[in-house]
Amino acid sequence: MQFPPATGPQTDSPSRAGTPLHLRAGGVSLVLDLAGPALPRVLYWGRDLGELGPEDLAALEPASRPGKTPNRPDEPFTLTLLPENSHSWVGTPGLAGHRRGRDFSTRFQTQAVEQAGGGGSARHAAPRGAQGEAGAGGGQAVVVRAVEPDAELDLKLEVELAGSGLIRMRGELANNGEGRYTLDGMTLAMPVPGQAGELLDFGGHWAHEREPQRHPFPQGTWAREGRRGRTGHDATPLLIAGEPGFGFRHGQVWAVHTAWSGNHRTLAERLPGGERILAGGELPLPGEIQLEQGQSYTSPWVYFGYGDGLDDLAARFHRFIRGWPARRRQPRPVTGNSWEAVYFNHQLEPLIALAEAFAEVGVERFVLDDGWFRHRRDDKAGLGDWHVDQAVWPDGLHPLADRVRELGMDFGLWVEPEMVNADSDLARAHPDWIMAAGRRLPPESRHQQVLNLGNPAALAHIKERLDALVDEYQVAFLKWDHNRDLVEPGDQATGKAGVHAQTEAVYQLWDYLKERHPGLEIETCASGGGRVDLGILSRADRVWTSDCTDARERQAIQRHTGLLVPPEFLGAHISADPNHQTGRSLPLAMRAVTAMFGDLGIEWDIRALDAPARQELAAWVAVYKQWRGLLHAADAVHADHPDPAFWVHGRVAPDKSRALFAIVPRSTSAEQPPGQFRPVGLDPARRYRVEPLAISRPVLGWQTWDASPWWEDGIVQVGRVLMERGLRTPDLPPDTPVLISFTGTGG
Ligand code: DGJ
User: Fold this and answer.
1) Is 234 near ligand 1, meaning CB less than 6 Å away?
2) Distance between CA 547 and CA 581 in Å, rounded?
3) What CA–CA distance (Å, rounded) separates 334 from 595?
4) Which of 133, 462, 494, 538 is the most exposed place for a label (fewest CB within 10 A)?
5) Half-sphere exposure at residue 682, Cβ-oriented, CA atoms within 13 angstroms
6) What distance in Å separates the CA atoms of residue 264 and residue 187, rounded to the nearest whole number?
7) Cα-based torsion angle of the residue sequence 370, 372, 375, 381 in order, rounded to the nearest 10 degrees
8) Helix, strand or coil for residue 206?
9) Are 435 and 486 in contact (CB under 8 A)?
10) What is the pLDDT of residue 705?
11) Does residue 688 have its Cβ closer than 6 Å to ligand 1?
């Protein structure tokens, strides 16, 4: 897209009068210097500064301008939202690109600033996703247009402050000059203050996503780069900089997230002058983004969150995501998934028996996982052949899907549309549709290759297949899998890298399907949590959080994924005992309580359970259904509990009238009896009736001594006393969590 020709600076923006722009929402202030001619820069980002007059705002700039120091450029550095070397910035540049080696450096000049929103009338640029809105009301947006006369580039920067206090930014770069401009990356940055002395981000791998890593904010660049062609199991949901020692309830934190499901990076950088930034953007492969004259590139949204503690930070993301137009089935249906029950062993009668057993314990959506399509008897063949296998299903999936619906459940189906097995009719017919760098095929992974959806014919084929399946079987839910990294992901015809095009094509495909089939839900799964980011999440209705269904492992995975993603999006299934991934045996209470704090499902062959075992399972599902209204709309809170043997987390209703907490004993405690636990996030002035849920009480039967009296009878107490003094933690065996309800008495 081309911008209007440059007409010189406008004088109508607040900044032209020299006053910085103060945006406030959801307890956050963002003060932007829009005076130009440089691109905007942040004078303050953090806790709400309250009402400020023009003089106070004007004083921010001289108070923060660096002086001249030895051996540094005479023009002190200016950090703009797109950092530029031409302003003496020697950290990571915002724009990396060139025109045949020239025009490698820029000095953009702001031409125009538009502002919209505020006072509850949010104006949000429409995101590319089908579900687009910047989030809850009260948001404000600033659009800056700038030109680079020498390099002949135009830039549009959009900055939004959502009602929740979350900030997001994206840039659009247009090539205005003759000759191709090669874009190697666009990285958008925000400064963080000096008190942000510690970093927290997450690594991990398949079935062990979101392993925390915490360390001092070092000098240099701490970059988390994703080069897997998908978000990655090791991708960090957030890169967080905070006051040393920050926790869920204390310490200021600033965080960045790049909303892109392809190659990407987020980084924290600290220069010798003390400058600290958080930044993010797409990470294109060499030569992947080439702009001919008149063409443009739009970056993904890069999100920046502030919080007084991690819960406050997470709440800003949760409120924002929950503000996306409601389209998901509510309340969230209980899912029954066939994978760990039968794997590839698909047979009609046993699957109908499984569906019946699921329905009996309260399941509301049956999902037929991998194994239903042509040639798919194991993971070596069939991907790409999206036709029901007549050898296994002579009448198609109708007998199963019809029975599922008769039982009052939705019918859901597993697909992995971006993939192809060499042993498939599709690969045999269209070998050129496989992603490859030139003629050499990439190494296989899980016996599969990647289908090049950047190829219009391949994309059209997949669209047609999925459309037809959803239509024929009235599919209400697709579990959309993606089981391998993209290695050497090129387009065979052009020989060029294709992750960007692939990512865009997947977004387009989801948008298309959702438009064609209103009400269709799609779960993002990539061997578990390998594709969890706000690019896909602006379209997805559920996240398959991890292939690890071991509840002890899941406690950690859900806790950390939940910093970005609201808990009701996190698919969490009660699975077999012993667990299939770890071989660990855990009580049903542990498996059920863990699943209750996400989007609960069952993935377990429960056909063989005897009547009492089924009743016990059904009782947990019933408790979940009773509480899910609260669980799925509440604030997710976590106590910074001093005893590492316990995790204490809860869900508190937005009006704080009710709450449900779980005490999760992870090991035996060093103290006996264990000390007090202190709930968090309650209304300090309100009186609550506190009691363990009946389903938790039998757990206490293991003890040979008396429980604390409040366990027997419950207790009524004022919120502030509960939060300050707490309650005696029950002496629980490891992996035996209990649930405690808090009900405002109004008195
Ligand atoms: C990986 C997924 O994460 C599993 O849940 C299951 O769907 C398998 N793929 C099926 O192949």
Assistant:
1) no
2) 8
3) 10
4) 494
5) 30
6) 10
7) -10
8) coil
9) yes
10) 61
11) no
Amino acid at 273: G
**DSSP of 371-389:** --BTT-SSTTB-TT--SB-
Question: Do 217 and 197 touch, CB atoms closer than 8 A?
Answer: yes
- Which positions are annotated as active-site residues? 481, 547
For 130-139, what is each residue's pLDDT tens digit? Answer: 233 343 456 8
Nearest-CA residue for atom 5 of ligand 1: 547
Tokens of 288: 């992947």
Residue nearest to atom 3 of ligand 1 (CA): 527
Q: How far is CA 655 from CA 103, 173, 312, 437, 658, in A?
A: 55, 44, 16, 55, 8
Q: Separation of 527 CA from ligand 1 center, angstroms? A: 6
Q: Which ligand 1 atom is nearest residue 526's CA?
A: 3
In short, whether 581's Cβ falls inside 6 Å of ligand 1 is no
Q: What is the pLDDT of residue 453?
A: 98
Whole-angstrom distance, CA of residue 143 vs CA of residue 146: 10
Q: Which residues pair with 233 in a beta bridge?
A: none
How far, in Å, is the centroid of ligand 1 from the Cα of 481? 7
Q: Please give the distance, rounded to the nearest whole angstrom, from the Cα atom of residue 106 to the centre of ligand 1.
A: 46
Residue 74 predicted with pLDDT over 90: no
Question: Which region holds residue 516: left if phi is over 0, alpha if psi is between -120 and 50, else beta?
Answer: alpha
Instruction: Convert the pLDDT of each residue in 691-738 to its tens digit.
Output: 999 998 766 656 656 678 888 889 999 999 999 999 999 888 899 999
- For the chain, the farthest-separated pair of C-alpha atoms sits apart, in whole angstroms, at 83
- Amino acid identity for residue 362 in this structure: G
Q: Do the Cβ atoms of 163 and 21 come closer than 8 Å?
A: no
Contact 483, 436 (CB under 8 A): no
For residue 482, what are the CA distances in angstroms to 209, 418, 453, 677?
A: 16, 7, 13, 41
Q: Does residue 525 line the site of ligand 1, with CB under 6 A?
A: yes
Instruction: Identify the residue whose tokens are 């398949």.
Output: 206
Asked if residues 640 and 250 have their Cβ atoms less than 8 Å apart, the reply is yes
With a 6 Å cutoff on the Cβ, whether 340 touches ligand 1 is no
669 in Cβ contact with 646 (< 8 Å): yes
Q: Helix, strand, or coil here: 496? A: coil
Ligand 1 centroid–CA 308 distance in Å is 37
For residues 716 and 723, what is the distance between their CA atoms, to the nearest angstrom? Answer: 13
Ligand 1 contacts CB of residue 483 (under 6 A): yes
- 546 CA distance to ligand 1 middle (Å): 10
Tokens of 463: 């669209």
**Within a 10 A sphere around the Cβ of 325, how many other Cβ atoms?**
9
For residue 235, give the nearest of 265, 214, 190 by alpha carbon: 265
Dihedral of alpha carbons 522, 523, 527, 529, sign? positive
Q: Where are the extended beta strands (E) located within 316-461?
A: 335-337, 365-368, 410-415, 419-421, 448-450
Task: Tell which one of 338, 339, 343 to mutate to probe ligand 1, the residue whose CB is within 8 A of the most ligand atoms.
Answer: 339
Pairwise CA distance, residues 663 & 679, whole Å:
10
Interacting residues of 562 by C-beta distance below 8 A, sequence separation 6+ = 314, 570, 636
State if residue 369 touches ligand 1 by the CB under 6 angstroms criterion.
yes
Residue 122's CB is within 10 A of a number of other CB atoms, namely 23
- Per-residue tokens: 585: 């045996």
3-class state of residue 457 by DSSP: helix
Whether the predicted pLDDT of 306 surpasses 60: yes
Could you tell me if the CB of 478 is within 6 A of ligand 1? no
**Among 231, 414, 419, 581, which is best to mutate for testing ligand 1, by the most ligand atoms less than 8 A from CB?**
414
| Position 494, amino acid | T
* Closest to 39 (Cα-Cα) out of 177, 189, 237, 239: 189
E strand or H helix that includes residue 269: strand 264-270
Asked if residue 339 has its Cβ within 6 Å of ligand 1, the reply is: yes
Name the closest-CA residue to atom 1, ligand 1.
527
Percent of all residues in the chain with a pLDDT value above 90, rounded to a whole number: 87
